Amino acid sequence: MAQPLPPATIAAFAAIVGKDHVFFDDADQLSYQDKFAIDDALHHPAGAVAPATVEQVQAIVRVSAERGLSLWPISRGKNLGYGGSAPLLAGSVVLDMSRMKKIDYDEANGTVLLEPGVGFYDLYDFLKSRGMKHWLSVPGNSWGSVVGNALDRGVGYTPYGEHAARICGIEAVMADGLVVRTGMGALDGAPTWQLYRFGFGPSWDQMFVQSNFGIVTKMGLWLMPAPESLMGIDLEFDRPEDLGPLIDAIAPLRREGLLQQSPTIGNWLRAAAVVTTRDQWTDKPGALADDVIAAIRKKFNVGWWGVSLRLYGRESVNKAAYAVLEQAMGALKPMAMRPTSWKAGEPMEASGWTGTPLTMPMQNANWHGGRGGHVGFSPILPQSGAAAMAQFQRTYARYKEFGMDYQASFAFGERHLINVNAVLINKDDPALMGRVDPFLKQLIADAKAQGYGEYRTHLDYMDAVASTYDFNKGALWQINRKVKDALDPNGVIAPGKSGIWPTRKAGGRA
Ligand code: ADP
């Protein structure tokens, strides 16, 4: 457990938010810790305080600054695999903004202004009650917050799947309590806050993403107009080496914009890890053997790799684009090619493709049974079949060497790939747990040797990943530290997030 806070400090928080919204006993500490952490003790919070308004956030920041405390802001704290609701620095106070749930919807322009507590299910229900004129983009774990996910650069399945790229205007409370609005929001009363992303002068929305420079209290987001038609193909490929040609076939379609959504190529474990557990397949330790992989593939009728491609918009346009997709994919000779189509008015499948919130993929945390979880390793690669194949071979060999079951995907962005690897864990298996940290460190080092860096990481690896971004002796981190020192020299807000520490707290865990 973390050191308890002095009763007077807890009373000061309670005076701001009410006694029902301060959480500082042992059970509270446990409920805010990271359930998936390799070592929970590193991230035990002192407790949590849950404001309902921006003014309360400001007051909490002031109390924390006066008393030398660090806050760890979370929106809904479902960032599982990256730290969940837990702070990087043990003893921090979690600032839980899940009570702040306002939604402002501009239906004519297709934008929302959201408070951090709005979950994907909340926004989905809200849009449904207004006739679903706009669709969401949801991540694989839609339990969390729309704002929190965009702030950690989460991704989804539709053309709006790069969530951080759809942010338009932020309101944030700074470490000195100042409230700022970015972009057009800096112009008091501007009706264009959610319409023009850049404002006048430097554009600072992205400064609050994956950072600790401020506490985001409102975020503008663009929503996708509900399409008239959705068409696509689900494909399966038989051999590991089919990955390279598949990437080289999809990449130009993605770059020219024929394909506007970002497909994800995933391996054979994706279904099995969600609807079965490992002991149903084998009792042997170490990476799954080829005969087990073959049995899994047979049962779920899947390839070594599978991918789903989707087209959104006008039906006439989709039909023309579909013909191009079909030809490009057919040329690759997939083992299965299943077309799918939907038109407005028809019953809609509940899936990530239709922006319906889902939590099913999280079930893979139960693959090993016990106190399960997963930790991500996600380097950014160029959109090159050869580069992806080499990365796959290197990583898969490491999975075997460390005795881990391979669950991986290659997710397209507009110009890049994210190679998302889930490392499935069981905290009740000490032998497995003993391998996880050396394995992840090895993967980070292997990627760095190729010039690849991760796009997002667990609390435990933020410093390690930051240190791989090392051009000119880590000049970028010197800048980040200078900004942190200027805005928050005492580290009131999330010290250590993304490897950014103020000088006075440097070495906190750096
Ligand atoms: P989700 O519930 O969508 O998974 P989280 O609330 O867990 O999102 O947020 C993910 C991460 O983003 C947090 O660990 C924190 O570092 C950061 N974060 C979340 N909300 C805020 C916020 N309102 N202001 C600043 N940083 C935030």
UniProtKB/TrEMBL annotation:
Keywords: FAD, Flavoprotein, Oxidoreductase. One of its GO terms (molecular function) is D-lactate dehydrogenase (cytochrome) activity. InterPro entries: Cytok_DH_C_sf, FAD-bd_oxidored_4_C, FAD-bd_PCMH, FAD-bd_PCMH-like_sf, FAD-bd_PCMH_sub1, FAD-bd_PCMH_sub2, FAD-linked_Oxase-like_C, Oxid_FAD_bind_N. Residues 41-226 form the FAD-binding PCMH-type domain. Its cofactor is FAD. Gene3D superfamilies: 3.30.465.10, FAD-linked oxidases, C-terminal domain, Uridine Diphospho-n-acetylenolpyruvylglucosamine Reductase, domain 2, Vanillyl-alcohol Oxidase, Chain A, domain 4. It comes from the Bacteria. It comes from Sphingobium terrigena. This is FAD-binding oxidoreductase. It holds the Pfam family FAD-oxidase_C. GO terms for biological process: lactate catabolic process.
